[in-house]
Fold this protein.
Amino acid sequence: MKTVPTKPEADRRSSQRERCVFRCRITHGPWKEIVDAVIRDLHGDGARLHMNAQCIVTGQVRLEVQPSGAVYTADVVWQRGSALGLRLIATLDQTVERQIEALRRAGAQMRQTASRPTDDDGY
C-alpha cells in the first residue's frame, strides 16, 4: 500500500512560511508591558518571533513591526523560552484607516448641512 506524504503535525500553517528579519515591539498584559523582538518567520496568518527579553507572554498582544509601523492584534499560540508563535487576528492600520474615512465622510456631511440656506431670518 502506498502512502501519501502529508504535512508534519507541527506544521499546520495555511500558507507558506517566509524567513525574514524584522524588528518589532510586542505590547502585552494588563500593564501594557513592551518587549522588543525580531520576527524570524512570517506567513499569511502568523509569525514566529524571538524576544530580546525572557518573559512570559500569553493571551492577546499588539504587534508593531518596525520601521514600517504596521500594527497587528495577535493571539499567542505557543512560547518556548524567548521564541514566540503568534496568530495574526487583525491589522489595526486598516481599522484606523476606516475610522479616518468615516470621520471624513461625517465632516463632509456636516459642511454640506451647514452651507444650506435656512428659511428663517436668523431668529
In short: The mean pLDDT is 81. Helices lie at 92-115. The first strand starts at residue 18 and ends at 28.
